[in-house]
């Protein structure tokens, strides 16, 4: 099959539990590459082949984004074939050379998209999404082969082709949802940004200024209370509160999202959630 030769030399990007930063180059992730290859073969990073693969996934794209992008491309290619089948089902287009030419072009695009799904190997949290993407692309290719067989036999019987393509699209879309869900989890587990003292001071003064007349006792007390909360937040770390880093980051990121600019409530939010987890 033509996809076998097209796949030679393609880079397999590993999507692990912690995906690479959005602008990470291929050279930076080379150490975590896993290729589908027989034992003993040398790993070759072929940027030229990657560039010719037809995928919009680039060397500057994170591994998880590459999995999402290639899965979306494969679903789009399969959808284009379903659209052509819908067109033929309501007319005599099946026997038209122009329609068959468009099917041929769409089929070639389907094979490229199929190969691109296999450039990326999802591991860890992304394993389920990767499995769905591969099963979906397998179904889509099977549907294409049935359609090509119908054209070769000059028999407009392709309901099974449509079924296979549609089921493949469903799995590919489920894979996209699964990637998105993992990425959201990783975002809340990521290291939260450090508190910038200048930005914090501006936020505090703005918050207290909305609550009290500036330079009054109430305003000054509010500022001092907020600054004390900043000190508590800055001095709080995962080991000190008995949490692993990922769990601590989830607490901190969620509390920061819920209480932007209000350090007292952010500090209270963290203390309450940490206490609940440690019960």
Structure description:
Helices cover 66% and strands 2% of the residues. It has 11 helices and 2 strands. It has a two-stranded parallel ribbon with strand order 1-2. The chain is elongated and about 90 Å long. The N terminus is likely disordered.
β content, as a range?
Answer: under 5%
Instruction: Record the strand order, biggest sheet.
Output: 1-2
Count all strands and give the number. 2
Q: Would you tell me the overall average pLDDT? A: 82
Radius of gyration, in Å, reads 27 Å
The SS-based structural class is: mainly alpha
Whole-number tally of structural domains: 2
Shape: elongated
Low-pLDDT ranges: 1-14, 17-52
Helix content: 55-70%
Helices and strands, in N-to-C order?
HEHHHHEHHHHHH
What's the end-to-end separation, in Å? 59 Å
* Count of runs of 4 or more consecutive helical residues: 11
Largest sheet: 2 strands, parallel
Short description:
The chain has 279 residues and is mostly helical. The protein contains eleven helices and two strands. The protein has helices spanning 2-7, 26-29, 47-52, 63-89, 97-117, 127-153, 159-189, 197-211, 217-234, 245-258, 263-277, and strands spanning 13-15, 120-122.
């Amino acid at each position: 099959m033509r996809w076998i030769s097209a796949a030679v030399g393609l880079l397999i990007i590993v999507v692990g539990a912690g995906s690479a930063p959005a602008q990470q180059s291929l050279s930076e992730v080379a150490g975590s590459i896993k290729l589908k290859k027989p034992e003993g073969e040398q790993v070759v990073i072929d940027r030229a082949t990657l560039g010719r693969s037809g995928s919009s996934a680039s060397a500057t794209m994170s591994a998880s984004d590459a999995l999402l992008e290639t899965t979306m491309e494969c679903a789009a290619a399969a959808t284009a074939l379903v659209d052509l089948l819908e067109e033929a089902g309501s007319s005599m287009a099946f026997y038209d050379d122009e329609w068959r030419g468009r099917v041929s072009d769409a089929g070639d695009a389907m094979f490229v998209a199929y190969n691109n799904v296999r450039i990326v190997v999802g591991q860890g949290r992304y394993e389920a999404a990767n499995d769905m993407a591969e099963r979906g692309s397998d179904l889509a290719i099977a549907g294409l082969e049935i359609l090509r067989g119908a054209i070769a036999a000059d028999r407009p019987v392709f309901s099974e082709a449509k079924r296979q393509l549609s089921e493949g699209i469903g799995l590919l879309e489920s894979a996209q949802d699964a990637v998105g869900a993992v990425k959201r989890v990783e975002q809340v587990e990521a290291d939260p940004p450090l508190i910038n003292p200048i930005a914090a001071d501006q936020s505090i003064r703005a918050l207290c200024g909305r609550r009290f007349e500036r330079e009054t006792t109430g305003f000054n007390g509010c500022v001092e209370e907020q600054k004390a909360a900043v000190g508590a937040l800055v001095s709080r770390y995962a080991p000190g509160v008995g949490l692993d880093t990922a769990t601590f980051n989830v607490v901190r990121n969620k509390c920061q999202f819920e209480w932007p600019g209000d350090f007292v409530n952010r500090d209270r939010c963290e203390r309450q959630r940490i206490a609940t987890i440690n019960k």
